[in-house]
Each structure stands twice: as C-alpha cells, then as structure tokens.
C-alpha cells in the first residue's frame, strides 16, 4: 500500500511541476545558410595552384520557452553543418577545423541557459551561451566562442550596466571518470583553469550608444610545474561608440590589453613577459539617396619576435568581423583551409588562430588595413556593393621576412531580397597577393587569387 501511495504521490508531483511548463509560450527562430565557392588559387602558387570548389550549409535553430513572466529557458543547436556531398563522420573529430570535409556533428547543441528577472536589480542569464560579443562586430568571436557563462544586466533609464563571468572551453579541468581520477594528474588539478570576469557600462541616446567593458583574464592551465609553470593574468579595456550624424553612420571600437602574459613560478632561467597589445576599428557610411559611400580602417598589433619580455600580439580582429570575401573571412577559411602558406609562410595554424604566419586569416592579429566601399540600391530589394582593401602586417613574424605587404583585394557583391526573410547574394573577389606570403624566401613564386561565390540565407 505504501508503494502505491508513493507512486501516486510521485505522479502528482510530476504533474504539478509539468503543468506550468506545458502551458509555456514557445518561440522558434533560426536560420538556414547555403553558400557555394569557386576559389581559383587558394595556395597562391605561381604555377598550377590548386582550385577549390564546394558548397557548405548550416541549419541553426533556437527555441525560447517562456515559463512565466520574467522566466525563460533558451536552447540553440546547429544541424547538418557540412559540405554538400561530403562523407559523414562517425566521430566528428574535425569539429570547427578549417578545411573540414566532415559534418561537425549531426546535431550540435551550443546554447542552454535560463533567463530570469530580479525585481529592481536587473536580469540574470545562467548556462551555456555566446561569449566574447561586445560593442561592434570588430573583435567579436561569438560565432566560435560559447560556453558556461553567468550574465547580469541592469537598465536604468538611458544607462545600462552589466557583469559577466565566463569559463573558457578547450582545457580539461576534471576527469570524466570522476574525482578520484584527478588525483596526481596535473591536467586535471583544480588550479588548471581559464576564466574571465567582466564589468561594463554605457549610455543609449536617440541616435546612438556607447560603452566601456573591462575584462580580467586569469589563465592557470600552464601552471603545472614549480619551475617552468606560469600564469597569465591581464586586463582588457574595450570602449565603443555607434552614432548617426545626419546622413552619416559612424562606429568605432578599441581594445587595450595589459598585464602579465607569462608570470613564472620560478625566476631562475625564466623571464616574465608582460602584455602590451591593442586593436582599433573605425567605420563611416554616408547615405546618398539610393546610394552610399564610406570607408573603414582597422588595426591589430603584432607580436615583436625580437622581444622576450613583452608580448604585443593576441588582440585579434575576431571571427564575426568579415570585411572581405577572401581575406579575414571566417566561413571561407573554415571550409577551404588556409590561404597561401606554400612558400615558407603558413597562413594560420589550420583553424585561423593567431600565431606566426597568420596572414589575412580570420581571427588574426598583426594587421593594418584600410577599405573604401560604395554601393547602390536601384530598387528596395537589391543592394549592389563594391569595396577595395589594402593591408599590411604590423610586424615581421619570422626572421628575414621579405615583406609585410599582405596585398590588395577588390570585392563586388549583389544581394537581392527574394522575400523579407530570404536573400540571395552573388559575389566576386580578386586578391593581388603581397610579398608577405613569400616568408623569408625572396625567390618564392606567388600569384593572385580570385573567388566566385553565391549564398542563400533564410531567417525565421
């Protein structure tokens, strides 16, 4: 009898908790992207450079469950993110690698978090969500960086305030077999961690907004030795502004990084390295009836290879910032692999991360570039745009480097809105490759590259 009563009580409890959830408002949103490429000379070789032709796609679905007023639960996943016709991967070991011919995962959940209001003190978001997004798209890595996060936001009239705590993925902090397996294993010790803490504030007005975010980075994942182990502890200051002045739209963002890039546990034989890096971006767009013209410029300091006491790189331009069709384009770099790199200077360590030789790769540092652009809208649904970009490295990345000139790129695109939620883009890009791709070999033969692309984008 007690068992029967227990089952009945348990069923009653389940029904009690499930009833409010079943009555929740559910909102679905997302996107579908299919993009095709023909990249004529991806390796930038003088003769017989290989061409690349493929089409990639991605379905992204987000679901918001409104449990009750002030309480919401959100999930997001990507599905069938792959190159058309590529073989399925049983292990999906190539997730997010450049030149990935396998689907990342059949369904890859990236977001799961709860949002709830706190009366008079703002709002909290807790769980897996997008990280590293602030201000403009410059410097953002929201497309690639997501993980465990706690977000607090508060709006007081035109002012906004916030705080964030992020735990950075990519390192093993604990063994999957349980706490006992962590004992004596340096890669699982509690001190091995990578976190960042941010506070922010800003102001919104009728035709713009501005703000400042201050972030403290603490990385102890290399602190596994009493003699060679080290910590990283540094600060980032990131102001931004967006504003409309008559017919001109202007936006700008800067980032300055300072602190300890390497603080060793033991001084003998080791030299501590400070961090002194910065990046900056400005863009102005002038509307002229059915046309527009403008410019943008961006800079990210490179690391001085001749200094052992100071690190001046690492302030990357981000994966969300894609000013060109070929250079610094995240989607192209991910699916088609590194640009150039056949003549002694590799462009990106496979996945576009920072490091020696990352010439024109997505999420790179060590670049100074200027772009002029203009467009025309002959009809409300059609946008035709052309841009010309010139770029150089900030510093040499290897000894005896031939040149810092990355090159010049011309891009032409036309985007047509078939429906309000469905657009089709065709584009042509031509890169006059600079001698930076020669590395330290002045006799290396390099050649230019051109790209043809088209892209179908559905949002809902």
Shape: globular
In the CATH hierarchy, the third-tier topology is known as Porin
Strand content: over 45%
Multimeric status of the protein: single chain
Number of helices: 2
Question: For the residues shown, what is the average pLDDT?
Answer: 85
Count of all domains: 1
Order of helices and strands: HEEEEEEEEEEEEEEHEEEEE
In total, the number of strands is: 19
Distance between the amino and carboxyl termini: 53 Å
What value does the Rg take, in angstroms?
A: 25 Å
CATH class label = Mainly Beta
Largest sheet at a glance? 18 strands, antiparallel, barrel
CATH architecture: Beta Barrel
Secondary structure: helix percent: under 10%
Report on the structure:
- It is a single chain.
- The chain is 6% helix and 51% strand.
- The model is unreliable at 1-19, 92-101 and 342-357 (pLDDT under 50).
- The chain has an 18-stranded antiparallel β-barrel.
- It contains two helices and 19 strands.
- The chain has a single domain (25-459), classed as Porin (Beta Barrel), CATH 2.40.160.
- A hairpin with a 2-residue loop joins strand 8 and strand 9.
- With 460 residues, it is mainly beta.
- The N and C termini lie far apart (53 Å).
């Amino acid at each position: 009898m007690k068992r029967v009563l227990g089952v009945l009580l348990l069923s009653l409890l389940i029904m009690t908790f499930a009833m409010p959830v079943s009555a929740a408002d559910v909102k679905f949103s997302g996107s579908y992207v299919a993009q095709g490429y023909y990249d004529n000379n991806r390796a930038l070789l003088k003769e017989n450079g290989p061409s690349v032709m493929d089409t990639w796609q991605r379905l992204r679905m987000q679901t918001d469950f409104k449990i009750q007023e002030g309480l919401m639960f959100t999930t997001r996943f990507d599905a069938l993110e792959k190159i058309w016709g590529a073989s399925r991967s049983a292990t999906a070991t190539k997730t997010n690698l450049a030149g990935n011919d396998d689907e990342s995962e059949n369904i890859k959940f990236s977001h799961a978090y709860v949002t709830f209001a706190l009366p008079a003190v703002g709002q909290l978001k807790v769980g897996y969500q997008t990280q590293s997004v602030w201000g403009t798209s410059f410097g953002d890595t929201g497309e690639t960086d997501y993980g465990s996060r706690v977000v607090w936001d508060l709006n007081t009239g035109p002012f906004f305030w916030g705080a964030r705590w992020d735990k950075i993925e990519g390192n093993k902090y604990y063994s999957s077999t349980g706490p006992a397996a962590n004992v004596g294993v340096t890669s699982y010790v509690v001190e091995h961690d990578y976190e960042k803490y941010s506070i922010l504030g800003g102001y919104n007005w009728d035709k713009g907004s501005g703000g400042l975010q201050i972030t403290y980075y603490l990385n102890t994942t290399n602190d596994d030795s009493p003699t060679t182990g080290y910590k990283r502890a540094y600060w980032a200051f990131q102001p931004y502004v967006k504003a409309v002045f008559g017919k001109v739209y202007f936006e700008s963002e800067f980032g300055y990084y300072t602190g300890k890039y390497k603080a060793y546990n033991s001084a003998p034989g080791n030299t501590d390295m400070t961090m002194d890096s910065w990046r900056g971006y400005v863009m102005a767009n002038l509307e002229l009836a059915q046309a527009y013209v403008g410019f943008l410029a961006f800079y990210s300091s490179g690391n001085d290879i001749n200094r052992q006491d100071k690190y001046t790189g690492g302030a990357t331009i981000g994966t969300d910032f894609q000013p060109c069709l070929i250079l610094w384009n995240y989607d192209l770099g991910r699916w088609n692999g590194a640009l150039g790199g056949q003549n002694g200077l590799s462009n990106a360590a496979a996945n576009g991360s920072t490091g020696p030789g990352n010439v024109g790769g997505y999420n790179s540092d060590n670049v100074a570039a200027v772009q002029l652009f203009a467009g025309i809208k002959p009809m409300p649904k059609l946008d035709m745009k052309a841009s010309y970009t010139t770029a150089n490295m900030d510093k040499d990345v290897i000894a005896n480097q031939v040149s810092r000139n990355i090159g010049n790129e011309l891009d032409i695109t036309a985007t047509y809105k078939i429906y309000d939620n469905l657009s089709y883009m065709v584009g042509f890009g031509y890169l006059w490759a600079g001698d930076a791709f020669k590395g330290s070999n002045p006799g290396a033969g390099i050649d230019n590259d051109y790209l043809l692309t088209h892209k179908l984008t559905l949002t809902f």
